[in-house]
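From the shared-data thread, chain only:
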Amino acid sequence: MTNNQELAEQQLVYEVFSNNPALDEVFPLLSEADFGNAAYKEIYRRARQEWRKEGYFNAAAFLENEDFLKVFLAVSNGYLLPAHDLLPFVERIKTQAKARRLKAGLQKIQLAEPEEVLAQMERLLEQEQGSLLRDYGKLVESQIEQVLEEMTGDGQKERIFTGLQGIDHATGGLRQGNISTWGAKPSTGKTALLLNVLLKNAKAGKKCLFFSLEMSAGQLWERLVANAASVNYSHINKHAFAPEEASRFRDGLLALYRLNTIFLIDDAAKLEQQLGILFDLKPDFVVVDYIQLVRSSEPSSNRHDEISRIMAAFKGAARKLNCHIALLSQFNRGVSNQATSMFGLKESSSIEDGSDYIVLLSRPAVENPERPPEETEIKLAKNKFGRPGIGQLYFDGKYQRFCDVETSRGVPWPERAERQG
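Structure, as tokens:
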């Protein structure tokens, strides 16, 4: 412990024995954990504990403790200071305490796996942010400015628009600093849907990041090109291009590359790896496909607690980076495809609590081949900032696209109309 910190701790302990009323301003700001000297820490802890419980503390009673009396005699050469002069001592103690914690944290990080170092460093710095005294007046001022920016329309430009009229109308665009969960049964098209959203925002100049824990990055690029360049996805999958499709595929792929806004990662299954990449790239929009496959390096007693911790970590990253994170989720086995309810999601309670938006996708043809494969229901089951809703989409598997259906006009599905004709 440095001499400056030793003197600062001595001064505050002296103020405790002197029952300085200025300590009413110090106790809310300074924790006993910030002290480096064990004896000073215990005296301050006792005084602060009594003050928080009773609103005051009995300094005279402290002198009845033989150990405390020895400390008092050792520090009694201090000077009683006016209230405004105590804060520099508080600042000095908190600064040194922060330095000690950072040093201890860095020592632990040295033992971490290489791929986890960046994520752990970001978490360490985030934990320490704001641990010093803050200018709360400026804090409120910045919050007001942020709200006004949202209201004037500039904030709307930062939101993530899905390109689906119903979802965008109900949400006003997905807010940055928040997370959404998109749930569906396997083979329903949730990956294709979120690639649609990613493509729209990447073309708008937003930096987009997709973590794939199920498909390779190459397979994702194929789907993106099928959509963006109108190349039959079945032909891409079979490498059996029709005339001119091969050149259109190549040109489409290069056009997406030149955007420099799409990043597809297929080799980061651990939460800590993903957080490290997030803080490195600082994207505007993030997709994780899918949440149940993400694992954390930290031990957990059960999967429910682990999912809760993962959701909290993504929520913290979204707020810190001011981005929107979309988490894909599977349904529990045995849940009917039509039963699009939040309770059908795996680890539903953790996901429901942690999500700001929950969107559920259902295609009846997944379970009933007699139904048109294009027919899709989308449900905004949770909207933290407004009302939920339900709508109809059309899935064009040929180009891996979802689009709105004008149900109010009774526009039929093309294939259904052909069959009826």
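The two ends are 87 Å apart (CA to CA).
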